[in-house]
Amino acid sequence: MSDTFQDLADIPKDFLRDGTQFVRRCTKPDKREFIKISQAVGMGFLIMGAIGYFIKLIHIPVNNILVGGA
Fold first, then answer.
1. Which keywords accompany this UniProt record (predicted)?
2. Is 44 exposed, middle or buried (0-12, 13-18, 19+ CB in 10 A)?
3. Long-range contacts of 7-12 (CB under 8 A, 24+ apart)
4. Furthest C-alpha separation in the chain
5. Using H for helix, E for strand and C for coil, what is the string for the chain?
6. In terms of C-beta density within 10 A (0-12 exposed, 13-18 middle, 19 or more buried), how is residue 9 classed?
7. Which of 20, 22, 28, 63 shows the smallest number of beta carbons within 10 Å?
8. CA of 9: how far to CAs of 20, 21, 68, in Å?
9. 47 alpha carbon, distance to own chain's centre
10. Are 23 and 16 in contact (CB under 8 A)?
């Protein structure tokens, strides 16, 4: 019974220890890495926006044909 309680009590301690180890290992990106990540995110925004725009562009006439031009 006390082993089970001890195991449950160790879970938050282990989580906190793992979390602090992770944060200590994290580093800020340097300028080159930050620019590379920003470019990748920007390209993703542009691509997803273009896809959404073309889908909407195709959807409007198709919807007008199906609904009846009202």
1. Endoplasmic reticulum, Membrane, Protein transport, Translocation, Transmembrane, Transmembrane helix, Transport
2. exposed
3. none
4. 73
5. CHHHHHHHHHHHHHHHHHHHHHHHHCCCCCHHHHHHHHHHHHHHHHHHHHHHHHHHHHHHHHHHHHHCCC
6. exposed
7. 28
8. 18, 19, 66
9. 16
10. no
Residue type, 57: L
Q: Which two tokens stand for residue 37?
A: 């990540």
**Geometric angle at alpha carbon 9, from 4 and 13, rounded to 5°:** 140
Instruction: Express each pLDDT in 9-68 by its tens digit.
Output: 888 888 999 999 999 999 999 999 999 999 999 999 999 999 999 999 999 889 888 887
